[in-house]
UniProtKB/TrEMBL annotation:
Biological-process GO terms, alphabetical: carbohydrate metabolic process
Name of the gene: Idnk
Protein name: Gluconokinase
UniProt pathway: Carbohydrate acid metabolism; D-gluconate degradation
Catalytic activity: D-gluconate + ATP = 6-phospho-D-gluconate + ADP + H(+)
Organism phylogeny: Eukaryota, Metazoa, Chordata, Craniata, Vertebrata
UniProt xrefs under Gene3D superfamilies: P-loop containing nucleotide triphosphate hydrolases
EC number in record: 2.7.1.12
GO cellular component, one term: cytoplasm
Organism annotation: Anhinga rufa (African darter)
Length: 158
């Protein structure tokens, strides 16, 4: 796409990285400052008219709301209407697949602070995107070229 790429893991605090490396799952308190920082990065890119891809495990609906709207999303527990309070236009790509496929990929990853043992804790809190969120779900069982084509189609064809 020629877009800027950001890996959300690069923006975790040293405390979050240490906690995960010790096999302790992050909680909402750990994640909120991180998500707010990610929102600020996305907002900065948007302000400079730079399209960006952010790889991020935005596991809960509230986390995705923070990415789109910033800290104000935390204070509001009201159901959101499409586009309401949205600061940024974001398409969430939910990469969905069987646990064993994802676990196998995590096992191959080297030098990362999050051990594969934390995968279950992520599935335990996962809230897959749903309406009115702006999202697509793409199967990880497809080939990489098929996945990319599906994402590109959603971005450019709407």
């Amino acid at each position: 796409l020629g877009w800027k790429f950001c890996d959300a893991d690069d923006y975790h605090s040293p405390e979050n990285k240490k906690k995960m490396a010790e096999g302790i799952p992050l909680n909402d308190e750990d994640r909120i400052p991180w998500l707010c920082a990610l929102h600020d990065i996305l907002r900065r890119e948007d302000s400079s008219r730079q399209d960006a891809v952010l790889a991020c495990s935005a596991l809960k609906k509230m986390y995705r709301r923070v990415l789109v709207s910033g800290a104000s999303a935390i204070e509001s527990n009201q159901p959101e209407q499409p586009g309401e309070n949205a600061v940024l236009k974001v398409l969430f790509v939910h990469l969905d697949g069987p646990t064993d496929i994802i676990a196998g990929r995590l096992e191959k990853r080297r030098g990362h602070f999050m051990p594969p043992e934390l995968l279950k804790s992520q599935f335990d809190i996962l809230e897959p995107p749903s309406a009115p969120e702006n999202f697509i779900t793409v199967s990880l069982e497809k080939s990489l070229p098929e996945i990319l084509l599906e994402i590109e189609h959603a971005i450019f064809q709407g």
